[in-house]
Amino acid sequence: MTAWLLEPLTYPFMLRGLFAAVMVGAVCAVLGTYVVLRGMSFFGDALAHAILPGVAVAYLARWPLSAGALAAGLLAAAAIGYLQTRVREDTAIGIVFSGAFALGIALLSTVRTYTVDLTHFLFGNVLGVSPADLVVTAVLSGGVLLLTVAFHKELVLVSFDPVLATVLRLPTSLLRYLLLFLLAVTVVASLQVVGVALVVAMLVTPPATAYLLVRRVGPMMGLAALFGVLSAVAGLYGSYYLNIPSGPAMVLVCTGIFLLVLLFSRRARPPRRVP
Amino acid sequence: MKENIPVPAMTCPAARRRAQPFWARCAGRRSSPLSPNPLPGWLRSRRGGGEVGEGRPEAEGLQRATLVGTSSYPVPCEVLRVENLTVAYNGRMALRDVTFTVLGGERVAVVGPNGAGKSTLFKAIVGLLPPESGRVEVFGCKPHQERVSIGYVPQREDVDLTFPVTVGDAVMMGRVAHIGWLRRPSRRDREAVRRALEQVGLAKLANRPLGELSGGQVQRAFIARALAQEAPLLLMDEPFAGVDAASEEAILGLLDRLREQRVTVLLATHDLQMAAEWSDRVLLLNGEVIAYGPPGDALCPATLRRVYGGQLTVWEHERGAILLGDGHCSGGRR
Q1: B217-232 pLDDT, tens per residue?
Q2: Are B90 and B43 in contact (CB under 8 A)?
Q3: Which residue in A72, A158, B132, B303 has a CA-CA distance of 20 to 30 Å to A100?
Q4: What's the CATH number where A231 sits?
């Protein structure tokens, strides 16, 4: 058993992949807690896809991919924020998301090896994590976790009751943008591990699993992070031994844990009260 | 935000005011011989320049103040001033030219039919709705400019009860501004939460998830949250709507204790009887101010007919009190 566990780690690329997966699993779950509680999962998904043109431009211009992704993510968040004032929120998300994704694919198609590269963007390539990538992921995840902890009570308040946040004179729109910004950074950090198509699963599924078990935001975050890390590590081993891509393997473990908890958690949620 | 209304000489530099506690600001302004009387005529006649009639709330306040001596409430100061406030809501003019003043420690019932603008008025006071014109001042400050503390208990409607918080967590949220950025709740904050929960009778349920509470208990939890802000001004929007008898009893008892603590309370209600029995002043509202004054004056047959039209029966009681059969509103207390 020990040998079975240690054998993959003799490869440096597996070790780096493991570190990256653990960090991404944790940071996605922590930030995903807000995504689940605020009902922003569509937004998270859109943000992930809207990053593609930034990555493509950076790739073509030989800039660092994370820089391009970050710029595109923030631009998309701002665009959705603006469009919301003109059309409904989900419509705004849909427009930005599909438009940006199409632009990204069009840009990437100018590269000869584009099917291979596109697959990496879509589904991640955790085994291709370079030492430099690992540093970027660590810095981004660490930054997100730090800011989340620092502004935890304000972010929870503005998610639970924006009215009270306004009455207490908190800068509500600034906090909202902070959350979108953190979400964009998280998506960029997890790009290489799970890819844009599946990052929303890492954001949403572990917190949703924790939501079935605990009734406070803090414990929900902790438990979600535990599930996230567990799925990331188990998925990595699964991908090594079953020879399947690592991103889908992690997401499958995530979904499996959710289904198990769903089956065995007795506690039913209270129905929404009608005032 | 537009400021069409010329401001009387009430505004002094915010920085200077900030250095003083709010009662000192109020006391200073009140005793200032230079301060003009910016009240509209119909109110000015009632309050007079310092002379106060017997039985009026302000006279009562003054007597109490002299008895208490130099406590934290030396004189009944002006806690809330609303001047020519006009607010549009959903593209409709919800409030037109509303003007009134509330003194410290007063209990004001805001009364009117559905859609009269009671909730809109509260939202404008706490700064949730920007006024089209006119101004709101709390302790002589604009709510937008300074972090003045107003406790606000909204109508129970759009709070997500499936959100994973305990009752204690929810009440602690009222302390977020006190705690400050990058800090954790101190012992003082936890103490304030405990006291607030005790005051509404929910101390034993502090660790329960909010979603497990009954409607009335949720209402009490939100009142506790406003109490935890330790605000000297409390706005409650229909706190008795859809509330069970035990919670109603608890809230009524709490309102009496708040009076002893000289907390100023504005309470929006459908219930004319409750307004008449409970309040020092009644603000009768129907898109604009129909009447403002002691319940006996504000709730007279003439004003009530103006608001409720033919859907209301008015009887004169032998001692001058009014009994009302209210066929227009649902959700009242009786």
Answers
A1: 999 999 999 999 988 8
A2: no
A3: A158
A4: 1.10.3470.10
